[in-house]
Amino acid sequence: MTPSTMLPPGMKRRLKRLVRVYHRMFFRFTPADLRRALLQLGIVPGDVLIVHSAFDKFLGFEGGPVDVVRALQEVVGPDGALMMPTIPFQGTAVEYALGDPVFDVRQTVSRMGLISEVFRRCPGVVRSIHPTHSVAVWGKRADEIIAGHERSDTPCGRLTPYARLLDYDGKILLMGASASTMTFCYFAAEELEPRLPVPVLTRETYAMRWKDAHGTVRVSNVRLFARGIDHDLSPLIAELKRRKQWRQGRVGRVRLALVRARAVYDAAAALADRGMFVRKLVGQP
Hints:
This protein is α/β, with parallel strands linked by helices and 285 residues long. Helices cover 35% and strands 19% of the residues. The chain has helices at residues 3-6, 9-26, 31-41, 65-76, 93-98, 114-120, 142-146, 161-167, 184-192, 234-242, 261-273; strands at residues 48-53, 81-85, 102-104, 126-127, 135-139, 171-175, 206-211, 217-222, 229-230, 247-251, 254-260, 279-280. The protein has a seven-stranded mixed beta sheet. Strands 3-7-8 form a three-stranded mixed beta sheet. α4 (65-76) packs across α6. The longest helix is centred in the first third of the chain and has 18 residues, at 9-26. It is globular and about 55 Å long. It starts with a helix and ends in a 5-residue tail after the last strand. The model has no long low-confidence stretch (mean pLDDT 92).
């Protein structure tokens, strides 16, 4: 039991209010401040940008999730593209698949944070069809980025928006989110699987149902990411920093990080050759 769980409910509410007041006094920032921080970090108009975020880290922010989305759209501009994973589960894909869900491209909620869920509902945003690893996209190339994801028999392979991120020399932005949320790394893992000491994907396929925008239910037989894989990306982040490819910043108390997808792939390939990218969890058979 932690000290916070021992507090009476009324005291916990007062404590939370004090925390919010503290951040508004000393770490207040506005949507304009966020835009400036993103530009200073290295995002430019025309970028193809995938974003991982945690809105609960935006303490002191003078706005809501919609304001974050607008700031991101304004930074990449109409000639760029904004992407966010809209994965519908937490935990492992295999556990999710065993629950026999039906992925509805219009209705299924994103479990990748509040900003991603708000983003997928925004005007002009389209969403790829995949039962486990869908992506929401806004911008000039949105339709071509999501095209064909439903035909992919793996979550993040060559027919997916994650591959297009590499094709378009895209960038990956973390806003208050940990490096472990970078779904592009799963594309790298799929591509590099023949060079890795452990299988990345399951041998068996899972029959998973999905519903398209017209309400038609179809079934895809997909291989999923294997259980028992170590998702610790600290060696990858260390390699990116060693190569001076990892850019960091801050707005308020929100930590920001930016990296090119190509740099991530190249660093992952180098680690794969040294047996340091994608390993089994200790104690797993």
